[in-house]
Structure formats: structure tokens, C-alpha cells
């Protein structure tokens, strides 16, 4: 997938020293007291770079608290004046953009539901033309990398170069331990496609509960993500939205303190030497894997020709079940993850079927 983003590094618009960017604050601005008290406690931790609070809330059902609206912008502005913390909020319409900018909001973010809708993203992008403000774009609710990239491109084409992505996980039908499945591979793919793009992780919306936040936050740093956005409320138990996933400013400070910051590279030559050795071994094994797969496919082709010539169907379910069963037992004995093994075998199997289909549908070379 081709991408074309013209962006400037995160460090050029926010200085966090050697540490990851930390954005924290309540899910929603509820009252002036709640915003100010939370902001002061967060600022006093010395571990927060930006204050967040939702002013307009995208709710699934009507009748729920849909955000305090424009008045909350003044509370945020006051919090910024009193604490010195830059402020950020979600915008979903051109009017939100205008109002947020007029109130001095320093960073805007586009929410997951908006990212999923190109009309909405384009409306926001048009409202941003000629404005120099950092914009963070959450992944769409559905696991669609193109939509995420497309939203980044729309905003970038409007002239926004201070751009970042927020990885907040993806909605799924299956019930899992997470509110939104992290699907790390999608965030990693985005990072690989646009290496300069800062990716900030949102453990609060991934987890949906307080308990898993430290684990996801650490994993995000281990994946070389540049920052975290974590919901923090002065009294989470009475929060008007997302009560289960918010943490007190004190708990937030503890989470940040306990994180281990790792570096993408090391300056230690001994470490680099050893790493280079491991990588050489990996390269050799990868080459072997490719060669073995190629040999396997050659046999698959032979089987395909044989089945075609004898008029036998490609898919034989019992054989496939047997393969999965036997191989995953072996894999488990060799300490390979079962889910990984099954996924890998399925991939190989699908490719084998594709190959055999090709063969079935080409006529055998006519005998002389
Ligand atoms: C939020 O950050 O409060 C929010 C609504 O997030 P998302 O768009 O990720 O659901
Ligand atoms: Mn929230």
C-alpha cells in the first residue's frame, strides 16, 4: 500500500525529553471543579505532558451523556492557564474545530468513529486548511488500515504536518479480555509504512478496565510507540463516562513510574555485536523456511496434477483435520504457541488450495 505523508517529527512540536509523550485527563469534562482538580493533580505528578478531556462525546445510544459541550472548553482553557499544561480534545465536525481553536486548544484528536467515516474526516480536514495545529488520528473502530491511513492523508493534504496516530484498538464481535482488540500487527504495519509517524497508544480504550492498563502501556513502549494517552479522573468511581477504565492521577503517576523505557537502538558495541550474531542466525533460518515452503509447494503441485488426472476434489476435510491435529501436537511439544501454529498452517493450507485450484483448471499437456 503506497502512502504519501509529509510530516514533521513529534519532537519538533512537543518536547518530552527522552521520555515518551504522556497525555492524560478525564474521558469527559464533567464540571469545572472536576476538570481543574484533575488537571492540578496530574500536573503535580510531573509526568504528564498534555491534558486531555472530551467535550463532545460520541455515544453509541442517544440519551447518554453526550459531553458537556462548548462551555467545557473554557474549563480546559482555565486548566491550561493554571497548570501550564497544553490541552487536547476530540473534534468531530468543522464547528468543533473552529470552537476548539478559538478556545486555544493546542492539539486536536479525531476519534475512532470519525476516522471510520471519510466524509467526516474530509469535513474536519477542510476546516483545518491554513491552520498550524497538531492533529492525532485514532484508528477506525474497524480493523481497516487503509481507512486509518486515508484519514491521515486527508488531514495531511489539508496542510497539517504535525501529525500523529493513536492506536486505541479495534472493535470485535467476539468477547475477549479487551474492550477493543489491540491487533498490534495493524499498528506495526502503519509504523512500518510511515516510519516517521508518531504512534501513541491508548491503553484505556484498548483495555476497558483499569487492571490491564500497565500491561498494555508497557507493551506499547516495547513496540517502540512514542507515547501514551491514558484516561484519568479525580474519582473514577463516579465518572460520567468510561468509569471502569479511568485511573486516579496518583495511580497514573504510579503506572508511568513503573514503565520501563527501552531504546530502539543501543550504543553498546558488545550488545550490537551479539544482536548482529542472532540476526545472522535468524536470516539463515528464514532462508531455510522459504526453501522448505517452496519444496512443499512443489509436492502440492504434484498432488494437484494427480488429483486432476484422477478426478478427485481438492479439499479433503478429514486429511486437513488430521494435519492440524498432528502438527499442533508436535508444535506444542516444541513450545510453539498453538494459535500461532494453527494460523500458520491455515495460511499454508490456503495457499496449497489456491495452487491446486490453478492446476485443476488448466488442462494437462496433451499427450503426443
Ligand atoms: C475518547 O478518547 O474518549 C474516545 C471517545 O475514544 P475513541 O474515539 O477511541 O472511542
Ligand atoms: Mn473514553
Automatic annotation (TrEMBL):
Which GO biological process annotations does it have?
chorismate metabolic process
- Pfam families per the UniProt record, alphabetical: CM_2, DAHP_synth_1
Q: Which enzyme type, at the first EC level?
A: isomerase
Cell inner membrane: is it a keyword of this entry? no
PROSITE patterns reported in the protein's UniProt record: CHORISMATE_MUT_2
Q: Where is the Chorismate mutase domain?
A: 269-360
GO MF annotation: an example: chorismate mutase activity
Q: Any idea of its EC number?
A: 5.4.99.5
Q: Which domain of life is it from?
A: Bacteria
Q: Supply the alphabetized keyword list.
A: Transferase
Coiled-coil zones:
none
KW Ion transport (keyword) present: no
Name this protein carries in UniProt? chorismate mutase
Natural source organism: Parapedobacter pyrenivorans
The organism's taxonomy opens as: Bacteria, Pseudomonadati, Bacteroidota, Sphingobacteriia, Sphingobacteriales
